[in-house]
Design goal:
There is one protein chain. By secondary structure, the chain is mainly alpha-helical. The chain has one domain. Helices cover 41% and strands 0% of the residues. It contains 5 helices and no strands. The protein has helices at residues 2-6, 24-32, 43-49, 65-72, 75-84. The two termini are 23 Å apart.
């Protein structure tokens, strides 16, 4: 794996795909408990762990993807990030 080669095996990544560790809400709990170091989530399960992003789960909030990214990359995204101490990149560093 590229991460292992570029770090001289100091970083090892095991990929578990297709929900073999459980559904996304379970993965969020595992990450909070330090049982999982890195994961990719849809916004809805992540909103349970990071309440300030819940506003983004509202239906029909954005016209299209371009409109959504304009807001997420703008003042709204900055505001949400400041509320939670970071929400775009959540990883367990324990």
């Amino acid at each position: 794996m590229p991460a292992q080669r570029s770090t001289q095996d100091r970083v090892q990544i095991k990929v578990f795909s297709n929900g073999v560790l459980g559904d996304q809400p379970k993965a969020v709990k595992m990450m909070k408990a330090g049982e999982l170091d890195l994961a990719e989530f849809n916004i809805a399960p992540l909103a349970e762990a990071v309440p300030s992003v819940k506003v983004l789960t509202r239906p029909f909030l954005f016209r299209d993807s371009k409109h959504m990214f304009q807001h997420i990359d703008g003042p709204l995204g900055t505001h949400i990030e400041n509320l939670q101490g970071g929400w775009r990149r959540a990883e367990n560093t324990a």
